[in-house]
Amino acid sequence: MKSVARTAALVAGAVVVLVSPVVAFRAWSGPADPRPSVGAAPAATLLPGDVRDATGRMVAGAVWTGLVEHDPATGRAVEAAAQSITSPDRRVWTVRLRPGGRFHDGSPVTARSFTDAWTAVLRERWAGARLLTEVARVKGAREGADGVAGLRVTGDLSFEVTLDRPLNGFPSLLGDPAFLPMPEPVLRSRDWAAYARRPVGNGPVRVVSNDGRALVLRRDGARDVVVRAVPDAGRQYAAVEAGDLDVATAVPPNRHASMDKDFPGRHLVVPGRAMTYLAFPGWEKRLSSPAVRQAISMAIDRRAVSEGPLGHQTTPANSLVAPGILPGRREGQCRLCVHDPKAASAALADAGGLGGPVTFWYEAGAGDDAWVKALADQLRANLRLDTRLKPVPTADLRRALDKREVDGPYVVRSAAAYPAPIAALSPLTAAGTGYRDEYALDQIGRAESAATPDDAVIPARLAESALLRDMPLLPLWAPHDHFVWSERARGVTADAFTGLRLDRLTATG
């Protein structure tokens, strides 16, 4: 009988959690907990060089102070741990650190805290390695290598970075978590698993506990901040409504329309740094005409897909550059992104039509089935195309592109590594389309090697115009972030590259 009673009690408890998810929050903290609380999906890792999701970036932005930070209002890089980052030619960069920097364990922040951490990112093949090898293109940087020719320590607080080519955006790139420092004892021990559970940074916030359900962050002179692992957007939203959570970092599709009523003056949409594109294989003759690709672009109702299958989580594209990239971006560059089925049909007829099946290739298991089907249905209705879907494993798609076996449009996702138009445009030339227009590539090179980021804006715009003219790929939409917060929350600030600024969050009461 005791066993039966115990089982009944357990079942009853499980039912309570299912019908009232807010109970879980009350059990964690109690309704009188004065600490600001944030709901977020669990981070894949808190290892700075391996950060690969929004929660990881959010935590990293508070626990560490990088060489630079991005101003949320302008997107521009501002020196933080660095006292200066200079270069006479935009290829060889000298970094000088501010004196007195310390990690939370009391150890000093030195030049080797950065250079050895970057070497570890490469040696361990972490997610940030691509930024060193493909974006910054540090001389001699290779995944798996235990040394980098382009990194040279010149003093306790200074080091030199040599790139393979000039890149005026290099200082801004250094705001990414991949370039954060790590303490010497950790770098020596290589106990990455323990460090990821309880990371020691050099920022304004320190980790005091992490049990997988809640991450407690301590700030000098302020209340702790609690980041709760709540992957479900609906649970986050309901908990903020009930007063058991202060900030939700996601909004469910069915509550998007009621945000303003539910949280008057307490909601925020933050434009993102990533973009989804539809790319065209340059070797497929039926799709080789820019007029055909332009017709397809005009036939797509981006807003209908964003508000339908994508659940209000994206912003329809009007540029090749994501809207979260503030410096130098220009709205409305893509006039052919405006939905105009009549013009699309006429343009396709003028181009000679598009006969035979049109197969859409995309990554299987990435959650794209519904929106790809909606897009294909639009093209079937507006252009009378025989559209077909082909979901394939990621590795198979890459292999098919390399072998030029892809015979139809395919989905590409790309995120700018730093806030500048050229950071969004340059990766598009490596999207597998085979596009090699000399003028566009020359303007991209001019933008990367310009004397300053401001000087890079004009050649980047010219490159964007050329890409939109030829449309080797067309922009579809950019994911954005949603935040809603309680009446007692203060200082809710976020941007596309860091996310919610945990070090600025406070709460009354």
UniProtKB/TrEMBL annotation:
<dbReference type="InterPro" id="IPR039424">
    <property type="entry name" value="SBP_5"/>
</dbReference>
<dbReference type="GO" id="GO:0043190">
    <property type="term" value="C:ATP-binding cassette (ABC) transporter complex"/>
</dbReference>
<dbReference type="GO" id="GO:0042597">
    <property type="term" value="C:periplasmic space"/>
</dbReference>
<feature type="domain" description="Solute-binding protein family 5">
    <location>
        <begin position="80"/>
        <end position="430"/>
    </location>
</feature>
<dbReference type="GO" id="GO:1904680">
    <property type="term" value="F:peptide transmembrane transporter activity"/>
</dbReference>
<dbReference type="Pfam" id="PF00496">
    <property type="entry name" value="SBP_bac_5"/>
</dbReference>
<dbReference type="InterPro" id="IPR000914">
    <property type="entry name" value="SBP_5_dom"/>
</dbReference>
<dbReference type="InterPro" id="IPR030678">
    <property type="entry name" value="Peptide/Ni-bd"/>
</dbReference>
<dbReference type="GO" id="GO:0015833">
    <property type="term" value="P:peptide transport"/>
</dbReference>
<protein>
    <submittedName>
        <fullName>Oligopeptide transport system substrate-binding protein</fullName>
    </submittedName>
</protein>
